[in-house]
Amino acid sequence: MSTAELAGAAPAVVAAAAERAGRFSARHIGTDAAAQRLMLDALGYDTVDALVGAAVPASIHVQPRATSSIPPAATEAEALAELRVLASQNRTARPMIGLGYYDTFTPSVIARNVLENPSWYTAYTPYQPEISQGRLEALINFQTMVTDLTGLATANASMLDESTAVVEGMLVARRASKSASNVFLVDADALPQTKALLEHRAAALGIEVRYTSFADLSEVAAFGAFLQYPGASGRVWDPTDAIAALHGHGGLAVVAADLLALTLLRSPGALGADVAVGTTQRFGVPLGFGGPHAGYMAVRAGLERQMPGRLVGVSQDAAGHPAYRLALQTREQHIRREKATSNICTAQVLLAVMASMYAVYHGPEGLRSIAGEVAQKAEALAARLREYGLVVRHDAFFDTIRVVTPGPSGRVVERARSKGYQLFWVDDATVGVSVDETTTADDLAVVAWAFGLPEAERDVRDLPFGEAEPLRGVAASLLRQEDFLTHPVFTAHRSETAMMRYLKTLADRDYALDRGMIPLGSCTMKLNAATEMAAVSWPEFSRVHPFAPEADVHGYLAMIEQLETWLAEVTGYDAVSLQPNAGSQGELAGLLAIRGYHRANGDTGRTVCLIPSSAHGTNAASAVLAGMKVVVVACDEAGNVDLGDLRAKIALHAAELAALMITYPSTHGVYEHEVLEITQAVHDAGGQVYVDGANLNALLGFARFGDLGGDVSHLNLHKTFAIPHGGGGPGVGPVAAKAHLAPYLPSHPLSQRADHAGGFVFEGGPVSAAPAGSASILPISWAYVRMMGAEGLKDATAAAVLAANYIAARLEDHYPVLYAGEGGLVAHECILDLRPLKEATGISVDDVAKRLIDYGFHAPTMSFPVAGTLMVEPTESEDLGEIERFIEAMIAIKAEALAVAAGEWPADDNPLVGAPHTAESVVAGEWTHPYSREKAVYPVHALVRTKYWPPVRRIDNAYGDRNLVCACPPIEAFA
């Protein structure tokens, strides 16, 4: 209601309007009642519920619940207060457990200007590189940092975590090795979570994991081997001979290396490694109970095309200037599907940016100094314990020592915990201690006391760790000689002023949700509210070790259980695991649960997975990694699963049918009315149904996957539940299942608890390095559900469906809407067919996407799931003004294309093929184009004061792949 309307309204009406305005859902949903009335009138429906009721098949409508586990919607203040209570139940101890996780200092300039900055955390994957140059440069810095420290040729733009990176390294070795062996050797001193993950993933692929100390490899044939450097026990040793012996058998060496240690130790490349993996967590990224953290992978020359994940490369734009873009994308799932290098279709961009900026902030000298101090602290503690008569297992170490205790080791761990310190219980006679950059001399003194050193005697504080000799026991041949981080970017931003301005410069080159709508179909780029984000930075959540004792993490466990319960209710499932730290990992976890269920029933021959031709490419890649054979099911002209073809495929593979993977609503953006018939046909043949949860934002509150016949699903918390995309990650992909599959959902060897919401015990094996995956961003989704309430979640779905149908209706006279359900309605997204435009005018989908940049928009999803189309998803968060601005831009672009066809502009020189236009392109030199400068950069008058200027012109992707450069170019390249 307007101010004038409120003034004349009855008191009850005023009170109701005020109540609505005070709800968080009114802030989250962009269209108010007046806007929705206008949109509904255009579509011919009386209410939003009537519209969604007509779109969603009546057979799957959820029945109202008498009671709900989701409490009534809280205000923002109430939600933050409840989170404060949960946070207070986490004990902010001093974690010295190690095992790949360390406390760290996040420079405040990075925390404020990256982690807490919506210009960075609300950006999308840089598939439109012209408007992603800032984060692409940050990722080039990340790749350069990793290649320099690992001594290998090429690094990717990050992995999900260290343990999953090790698995991906194993798969690279399997693809690249010429050995016929199915044996993969694993360091007996590997991290325990990595061992468990390797075993779980290898079993599905028929790979034999064999543990070894690498003492004698003269007669062991293996396609690859994994070495931990330094080991989980802290041991530093020289694996050069072991790697050479492995190469002699045709195997490849995968080395997990601590990047901070590599500032002092020889690089994996210098040791002969083929692949290096690990984590960048200790480069300024908070512990966060396990994540999100950016893993890394680097490979030797020749393995670039085998490498999974995203790879940033240097190309050039239309003016010949250097420009960044994603390279070698033909390796990815959406193109190669079941033949892809991996099922991972995300990265940990926001965390990779933080880690890279930590290196930019400290530079090579700063990193070496931090590493030297860490090594000195460890040596000072070891020396004091030895002096007291205790045995330290290894003489050569970096930051971790294993100490033999004269009595039960648990007593030492408990003494330390009584003073607020967490040590690692190794066994009944051994305790592990890891130090980091935050460790002080006082901390070392308390740890020494915990081991029984008398307080009255000289303690560690009397032996300044600066006097201890770092790496005292490490052989000279293992000390680093090579320089690293020699590019000027790592030395040019020493003052905070310079660092702040560098981060601001990069952010200004990007287009994120803080600038305008990102209408990406299948990606759900909705509001990431500031209140939802607030708790991520609280130390009670951010400085918690993933393997902390259960008694120290009651707040986390309570929040996780609540979120699991809420997600189970809204999806119609019985159990939920929040461990998968990406949608791809959730897919894999669901399929592995199906595999475990069939095997438990003796159905080892059930290995066929039916997948519709329209499905996400990750579906097929995940099925392969779960040990399944992909059989494609056709879709009909309306975009639905072809029931005839489905029944034929089921009959053909009845005895070996493991599962059907189906996305609902479909990848084409349509609610399939035969979904119950589809799932029943699979169940009748003994198969299980995996419902991909990517499009849950079109269903929440109106229907549930479990009621559709789904047995298991993954959800994307970074889509439906408001976790921001962070420029291409982090993500969270929980997996939810019915009771019969619940026992096979992910477990973890170091989990604080065995039971989950609903009382189920998960025994399936881990899919991520930490028990709760990317736990530190779970408060975002917790806050979203808590503040929306069940009704708010339903209202959000309705608003999203209304917005998509409004766009489809407004644009259908200009661009055909490719698929629609009954009544001509779409779900939460619509596919605009640009192929007729290309045929009539010569203007391609690429031209339209790049021209949208000139209008101030991020393009919709291009050519997926159908080549030559744009898939548009406005979400519920955009207001009517922004939706209308997009509609007007698309109509104006159509008119420009028709002008080309009419001969007003040449086919090779017009505003569309010249897009996007930079400021330089319209002010430097003579303007020789047949269209005006104003038409180029101000196609609508509203842009004159609010213009987003792309930093580069259209990028030549083919040039970048022909001339692959994936590290920081020399500064002269930008002269």
UniProtKB/TrEMBL annotation:
One of its GO terms (molecular function) is glycine binding. Transmembrane segments: none annotated. It holds the Pfam family GcvP2_C. It catalyses: N(6)-[(R)-lipoyl]-L-lysyl-[glycine-cleavage complex H protein] + glycine + H(+) = N(6)-[(R)-S(8)-aminomethyldihydrolipoyl]-L-lysyl-[glycine-cleavage complex H protein] + CO2. The lineage of its organism: Bacteria, Bacillati, Actinomycetota, Actinomycetes, Micrococcales. Its cofactor is pyridoxal 5'-phosphate. Its EC number is 1.4.4.2. This is Glycine dehydrogenase (decarboxylating). One of its GO terms (cellular component) is glycine cleavage complex. The keyword Manganese does not apply. SUPFAM superfamilies: PLP-dependent transferases. It comes from the Bacteria. GO terms for biological process: glycine decarboxylation via glycine cleavage system. Belongs to the GcvP family. The glycine cleavage system is composed of four proteins: P, T, L and H. Keywords: Oxidoreductase, Pyridoxal phosphate. The modification N6-(pyridoxal phosphate)lysine is found at residue 719. Residues 796-917 form the Glycine dehydrogenase C-terminal domain. Coiled coil: none annotated.
